[in-house]
Fold:
Amino acid sequence: MRGPPIVERGTTVVDDVHEVAPRKRADARRNITAIVEAATRCLADDPDVSMATIAKAAGVGRMTLYGHFESRSSLVAVAVEHALDRAEAELSAVDLGGDPYEAMGRLLDASWEVTFRNGGLVQAAENALSPALLQRAHTQLVDRAKSLLRRGRRDGRFRRDMPLDWQVTAIQSLLHGAATAVHQGTITPARAPGLVKATALTTLAVPGQRLE
Structure:
C-alpha cells in the first residue's frame, strides 16, 4: 500500500502533492475564466444580476465564486477589464486610414458591436468601479473618434460649424440610444447598426456635400 505524501523541511509537499497542486491551479484558472466570462455576459444583460446567477452561469458554486472574488464589486471590476481588453483589441483592428468619411463608417460599425454586446456592463461599472477604470471605458471610442474627426474636418469631409466635442457626444449618445432601443424592441438588432451609421454620418457630413 502506498504511504501518505512525503513532507520535507523547507518545502511544501512532495511526491503525490506535486501532481495534485498543478492540477488544482489549473482547475482554479479554469474556474476564474468561467466566472469572469459568465459575469461579463450576465452583467451585459442585467447590471443588477446576482452573484448566485453568475455562479450558476459559470457552472460553479457560490463558495467557489467567493473563493476567487470576495465581493461583487471586485468581480465587476475584473469583468469590465476583460470586456475593455476585448473591445480595445477590436477597435484597434479597425482600419482608420483613407477617406475619413469611410473610416468613420468602419469605426461606427465596430463601436456598435462593442456597445451592444456590453450593454448593462457599463451601467454596472458606473455603480461599482473607480473613476480611473470608468474613464478608460469612456475613452476607448472618444480618442479614436476625435482623431478621425479632426482629420475629416481638415479635409473638408466633416462639418466644422459645431464643436468637435459635441460631435463625439452625439455619436456616443446615438450608440447608447440605439442599444436601448434594441433592448426595448423598437428596432431590431439587424437594423440597428445601419441606422446608427447612416444617422451619425449624415449628422457629421458637411451640409450639401454628396454622401458616398
Summary: The chain is about 70% helix and 0% strand. The first helix runs from residue 16 to 45.
